[in-house]
Design goal:
Strand content: under 5%
Structural class: mainly alpha
Mean pLDDT: 89
Number of strands: 0
Low-confidence stretches: none
Oligomer: single chain
Helix content: 55-70%
Number of domains: 2
Largest sheet: none
Shape: elongated
């Protein structure tokens, strides 16, 4: 399930042994359910600790914090784009002239 949901998740023999050792006390159906909940809520592969956590509402994982920060950045960018004004024409013209000069200088060398 993990490899299907997270294609970049690396499966190695030592990794499989470690995951089995760490999760062996967890009922198969319970582990499967926890993994399914994780897949629905995160774009990042789970850690062993996340699947073992009894309280799903406990301290967020590094990946969950990252996802929340990304979401916040996206919302801030959306808000900025709604209030942003276009560049004044005189500045845009100066910028275009500078870009043109740079292209000419590059072509000459």
């Amino acid at each position: 399930m993990i490899k299907t949901a997270y294609p970049f998740f690396e499966i190695t023999e030592p990794g499989v042994k470690l995951w089995h050792l760490m999760l062996q006390d967890l009922e198969y159906k319970e582990a499967q359910g926890r993994l399914a909940r994780h897949i629905r809520s995160s774009k990042y592969a789970p850690t062993i600790a996340e699947l073992l956590a009894d309280d799903q509402a406990s301290e967020p994982s590094f990946y969950e914090v990252l996802r929340l920060e990304e979401e916040e950045d996206h919302l801030l960018l959306e808000a900025y784009n709604q209030t942003a004004v276009p560049m004044p024409d005189h500045i845009l013209q100066k910028r275009q002239k500078l870009d043109e000069r740079r292209r000419l200088n590059v072509d000459e060398h």
